Amino acid sequence: MSLKICIAQLNYCVGDMGGNAQKIIAAARTAYQQGVRLVLTPEMAICGYAAEDLFLRTSFIQACDDAVNLVARELAGLKGLTVVVGTPTHGDSGLGLRTRSVAVQQRHNAARVVREGRVIESYAKRELPNYQVFDERRYFAPGQGTCVFQAGEGVDAVSIGLLICEDAWFEEPARLARQAGAELLVVINASPFHVGKGSERELMMRERCLATGLPLVYAHLVGGQDEIVFEGHSFALQADGALAGRAESFKERLFFVQAERVRNAIELVADSVPLRSPEADLWDALVLGVRDYLGKNGFPGAILGLSGGIDSALVLAIAVDALGADKVRTVMMPSPYTADISWIDARAMAERMGVRYDEISIIPEFEAFKASLAGEFKGLAEDTTEENIQARIRGVFLMALSNKFGSIVLTTGNKSEMATGYCTLYGDMAGGFAVIKDLLKTTVFRLARWRNENDPYGTGSAPIPERIITRPPSAELRADQTDQDSLPPYEVLDAILKSYMENDQSVDSIVDAGFERAVVERVARLIRINEYKRRQAPVGIRVSHRSFGKDWRYPITSKFGA
Q1: Catalytic-residue membership of 423
Q2: 391: which of 83, 138, 367, 424 fits an S-S bond (Cβ 3.0–4.6 Å)?
Q3: Is the distance from CB of 440 to CB of 414 less than 8 angstroms?
Q4: pLDDT 10s digit of each residue in the chain, 562 long?
Q5: List 4, 43, 248, 296, catalytic entry
Q6: Helix locations, 92-181, DSSP H
């Protein structure tokens, strides 16, 4: 007995039901020709994930139904082929109640099992996540049933227990599937990436295999959607939890798994790629996030301010790997405080990356602003006001070039800056996409060194001049300025941010870990008082388990100091 399974680890686009359906149809036809009789698509493959409040629109759900029916019709002639399609569905009680003050959802996060032109089974996700970036209880009602179906024919038939993502993180859904006769668990998923998440999934699914005594096939989404990225990394585990196979991460793949009956048990056979370093995964996540944000939204290219500093250098390297040098433009905008080495290093990096590089001085505009405000500012010393004017002039220049030529402005601020407000509203925060918004400054340095040692996309080795990495970071908005004039050393700051912001530790517990109370309290205060800036920041790529985005929902007005 042998059943060949295909995971359609593909990049589906939110709202493109017709295009997603065609991807599924093409993948199923290709797989069928190679002997596949069970095709698995990821969670919400028909509409993309996450569609957010589009799920509340009746017309959206209807369009999903129509697309599933299209898949069934187009594959009707492939005898014996079963396809699992992730899709939202109407609930058994209809569309639910929604008024201006009440919302009772009867939609489901579901899967349709189609074979030879018909939907033979439907399954609604039982466990609805409502943490981190997830809002599934806003949109869906939990399912109650169990889905076990036959795939393959005759002696090759296998009883398949179907689960959707969060279901497999709890014991009951898998146990019920086993009790209903499942010999093999299949789990379809749309689980956003953060560093280390792939290994976490494999460990949890091993628990599920050991608890049920069943092998498991895990089908995962790949692609970027606004601030989140899905890395693929589909895999298969034996009944004892041992790895049977693992698909490549961050790439579209048809991943094949052979299920063979050996002594009344199912064993799985598949190819496998090794686990990679956190930096390799992080780089690919950022590249895919940029590529899909621009590509799916129709931007012809990207533009960024290249300062000669580490943040803009890293963003440039990511952008070129994502888009190609011909679609990336850089602009150096020197002020009276720009060091000569900043010019030299910015030019050198642009040359290494092969991108367009222009220099537009902001000195005339800066002097004009100061002259216009001289009367208002008479007798007052220069301070952050003048620093912010410089940043805002640069923002105006970049946005003007964006408006004229259509390229999106990539901002270059990092997570350490966003946390502490070390950024300028309508200045360096001006732009459409914040590439490294979720990277702590220490991670920026680590990733820059990794990229200089690796060339994963063949765009050039060692793209970042060494001096950019080794010189003290500076905004260069006043004479002899460094970041540490205003902030604790980044090694200290980032450790506190990880504890306080990412892991919700209290000030007292961080102090107990060995940090100075005054420093911890200062950082906590900076996080609290700069919420208003973060609310106005562009969307950026989430790569940690807690980002300044959907993971972080704090009031702007609050006296609570935590």
Answers
A1: no
A2: 424
A3: yes
A4: 799 999 999 999 999 999 999 999 999 999 999 999 999 999 999 999 999 999 999 999 999 999 999 999 999 999 999 999 999 998 765 555 566 666 656 899 999 999 999 999 999 999 998 888 888 989 999 999 999 999 988 878 999 999 999 999 999 999 999 999 999 999 999 999 999 999 999 999 999 999 999 999 999 999 999 999 999 999 999 999 999 999 999 999 999 999 999 888 899 999 999 999 999 999 999 999 999 999 999 999 999 999 999 999 999 999 999 999 999 999 999 999 888 889 899 999 999 999 999 999 999 999 999 999 999 999 999 999 999 999 999 999 999 999 999 999 999 999 999 999 999 999 999 999 999 999 999 999 999 999 999 999 999 999 999 999 998 776 666 676 676 767 889 999 999 999 999 999 999 999 999 999 999 999 999 999 999 999 999 999 999 999 999 899 999 998 887 6
A5: 43
A6: 136-139, 171-179
d(CA 94, CA 89): 10
158 touches 184 (CB < 8 A): yes
Is 441 labeled as catalytic in the residue annotation? no
Closest CA to 189 of 111, 293, 273: 111
What are φ and ψ of residue 540, in 5° steps? -145, 170
Q: How far apart are CA 68 and CA 353, in angstroms?
A: 44
- Tokens read off for 430: 């001006």
Does residue 165 have an active-site annotation?
yes
Mapping DSSP onto H, E and C, the string for 195-257 reads CCHHHHHHHHHHHHHHHHCCCEEEEECEEEECCEEEEECCEEECCCCCEEEECCECCCEEEEE
> Global pTM?
0.95
Active-site hit among 4, 125, 437, 441 = 125
Q: Of these residues, 6, 47, 64, 165, which one is catalytic?
A: 165
Q: How far apart are CA 519 and CA 105, in angstroms?
A: 46
| Amino acid letter for position 299 | F
Give the integer Cα–Cα distance in Å for 398 and 433.
13
Distance of CA 399 to the CA centre of its chain: 25
Q: Could you give the CA distance from residue 369 to residue 82 in angstroms, rounded to a whole number?
A: 68
